[in-house]
Structures are given as structure tokens and as C-alpha cells.
């Protein structure tokens, strides 16, 4: 699914999220563990400021473990609660309920003191497209989607997904846009497969990816593409990979589009191992 974010759409998306926030106790903000900053909505802090929040670094199975640890530390230092998870296999999901209970203890204790009947914690999953929202909801739900629970004051029937006894989720996540006006952010989103290839120039995305790998993961590049050495310049690197993989056009020229497709496909399929495309250091230096 590609979503075109025109100003009208952005306003609508924001309105929808704001409406949903009224129904819940806590927000689970889903980001891509490989690019935790670039996969955030630029206005998220302001939009969800009224609710407690847990940042979930999803697809941690695809990210560089050492860098994910740095990100968890980074968020902790900023006073933001963050967990690394893999929504596809379910790794780390148990911590979500446990941490939610801690963060909402005071609110629920107060409700109990007022004689309000205990209920499950209500949560909303928010994130940019393709970050894994549906996967997470399905994984947590384990077929526990309830169709009945109309809440008073809500005109459209919201469906709640039960996660054990103590947590329930709105079944439709909040979808927000990424910070796509920033070109570097666009390249990172494209490299990790978060945005459709047709949106950006494939060769430009690959130039970004190869330069990044050259600087941060040179041995992975050399190993994967059986390079004798790592060329300093980007064009010879393209040429080397193209030659090794037979991306050649009639006349013996390197087919850069085909080479780009191949490189990006292999990065996204974790053929170069687990990769992270941004580090906290890059953001604290800015
Ligand atoms: P949504 O648009 O945010 O609802 O994203 P989806 O749930 O449709 O997920 C987008 C893609 O990411 C799908 O191909 C999922 O299988 C994949 N995905 C989601 N979570 C994970 C994860 O934790 N690990 C891996 N490896 N893939 C994931």
C-alpha cells in the first residue's frame, strides 16, 4: 500500500489519531529498529503528548544488535521508555504488558480507590506505514479480536483486541507519515523497504546504501560480493558488484538499474547480515 501524504491527508491522519487517543490509556509507538529516528513521525511527540508512551523498536531481528542496545540506552537517557521487539516471531512482546502495567499503576490505583471496577489497560499502536503495526496486532491478538465492545460515547464501533486479561488494543492502528521531506530520511526508508521503490530514484538510493555500508560495514560488502578490495569511489564499486553478479547490458556495459535492484533486494533480505542504518551518535552530534 502506498499512501500519498498531501496536507489534507496529513490533517486527516492526525485527526484520526487524536480521536483514537481519547479511548486509550497508553500509546505503543512502533518504529523500525534499523532506523529508529527516520521511521518516526516528525510530530509524534506533540501529537501523543497527553498519553504515556512506549517506543517499540520493531524488526529488531533485522537490526544490528549492538546498535539496538545503543538506541535503548539513548531513549532511556531521554526518559523515554523503549523496548526492542520482533513482531513477526513475538520476541520481546511479553515485556509490553509488564511495562504498561508499571507505567499505569498510579492511574489504575487511583481508579480503584474511587471504586471504579478494574479493567484491562487500553492501548493504541501508532506508526508510519510498513513498520509492522498489523503484524504486531495480529501477533498479540492470537485470534482474540472482539467485535462487540462498543464504548459509550463512540459513534463508530471500535473493535478491541484482547491481549491476555490485562491489556486490550484498538484493532485499527494510528497511521502517521514519515519525515519524507528530508532526503536522507527518504533514502533510509527506501533502503529498508519502508517506501515503494517507484517513489525515489533507485540508483540514488543504492548510492546512499553502498556508501553507508562502505563506511560502517565494509567487511560485509567485501564478503557478500566477493570483492578483492573495496574501491574508494562509488562507481567502481557499482561496476565491481555488477560484474560479479552478471548485471551486464549488451555491449558489455554495467546495468546500473539491475545492480541497484539486486543490492537493495539483498540488503532487505538480510543477505548482508543484520544492519542498522543510523546510530544515536549521529543524532547527538547534530
Ligand atoms: P503496517 O503497514 O505497519 O501494518 O506493517 P505490516 O504489519 O504490514 O508489516 C510490513 C512488513 O514488515 C510485512 O512484510 C511484515 O511481515 C514485516 N514485519 C513486521 N514486523 C516484523 C518484524 O518484527 N520482523 C521482520 N523481520 N519483519 C516484520
From TrEMBL:
Q: In the UniProt record, which is one GO cellular component term?
A: cytoplasm
Which residue numbers delimit the CP-type G domain?
14-178
UniProt subcellular location: Cytoplasm
Q: Does the keyword Nucleus apply?
A: no
List the keywords (alphabetical): Cytoplasm, GTP-binding, Hydrolase, Nucleotide-binding, Ribosome biogenesis, RNA-binding
* Residues bound to GTP: 58-61, 130-135, 174
What SUPFAM superfamilies has UniProt attached to this entry? P-loop containing nucleoside triphosphate hydrolases (SSF52540)
Gene Ontology MF: a single term:
GTP binding
Listed under GO biological process in this entry are: ribosome biogenesis; translation
Which Pfam families does the record cross-reference, listed alphabetically? MMR_HSR1 (PF01926)
Family matches, as NCBIfam families = GTPase_YlqF
What protein family does this chain belong to? Belongs to the TRAFAC class YlqF/YawG GTPase family. MTG1 subfamily.
Main role?
Required for a late step of 50S ribosomal subunit assembly. Has GTPase activity. Essential protein that is required for a late step of 50S ribosomal subunit assembly. Has GTPase activity that is stimulated by interaction with the immature 50S ribosome subunit. Binds to the 23S rRNA. Required for the association of ribosomal proteins rplP and rpmA with the large subunit.
What do we know about how this protein assembles, alone or with others?
Interacts with ctc. Interacts with the immature 50S ribosome subunit. 2 molecules of rbgA bind to one 50S subunit.
> What name goes with this protein?
Ribosome biogenesis GTPase A
Amino acid at each position: 500500500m502506498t499512501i500519498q501524504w498531501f496536507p489534507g491527508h496529513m490533517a486527516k491522519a492526525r485527526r484520526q489519531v487524536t480521536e483514537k487517543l481519547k479511548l486509550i490509556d497508553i500509546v505503543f509507538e512502533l518504529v523500525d529498529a534499523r532506523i529508529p529516528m527516520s521511521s518516526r513521525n516528525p510530530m509524534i511527540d506533540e501529537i501523543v503528548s497527553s498519553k504515556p508512551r512506549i517506543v517499540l523498536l520493531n524488526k529488531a531481528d533485522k537490526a544490528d544488535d549492538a546498535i539496538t542496545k545503543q538506541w535503548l540506552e539513548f531513549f532511556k537517557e531521554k526518559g523515554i521508555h523503549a523496548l526492542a521487539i520482533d513482531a513477526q516471531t513475538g520476541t520481546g512482546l511479553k515485556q509490553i504488558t509488564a511495562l504498561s502495567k508499571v507505567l499505569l499503576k498510579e492511574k489504575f490505583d487511583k481508579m480503584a480507590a474511587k471504586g471504579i471496577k478494574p479493567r484491562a489497560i487500553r492501548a493504541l499502536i501508532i506508526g508510519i506505514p510498513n513498520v509492522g503495526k498489523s503484524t504486531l496486532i495480529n501477533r498479540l491478538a492470537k485470534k482474540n479480536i472482539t467485535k462487540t465492545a462498543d464504548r459509550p460515547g463512540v459513534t463508530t464501533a471500535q473493535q478491541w483486541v484482547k491481549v491476555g486479561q490485562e491489556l486490550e488494543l484498538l484493532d485499527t492502528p494510528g497511521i502517521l507519515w514519515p519525515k519524507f521531506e528530508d532526503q536522507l530520511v527518504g533514502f533510509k526508508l527506501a533502503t529498508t523497504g519502508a517506501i515503494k521503490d517507484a517513489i525515489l530514484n533507485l540508483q540514488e538510493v543504492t548510492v546512499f546504501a553502498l556508501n553507508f555500508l562502505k563506511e560502517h560495514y565494509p567487511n560485509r560488502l567485501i564478503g557478500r560480493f566477493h570483492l578483492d578490495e573495496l574501491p574508494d569511489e562509488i562507481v567502481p564499486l557499482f561496476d565491481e558488484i555488477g560484474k560479479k553478479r552478471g548485471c551486464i547490458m549488451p555491449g558489455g556495459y554495467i546495468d546500473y538499474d539491475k545492480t541497484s535492484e539486486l543490492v537493495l533486494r539483498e540488503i532487505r533480505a538480510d543477505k548482508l547480515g543484520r544492519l542498522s542504518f543510523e546510530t544515536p551518535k549521529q543524532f547527538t552530534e547534530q
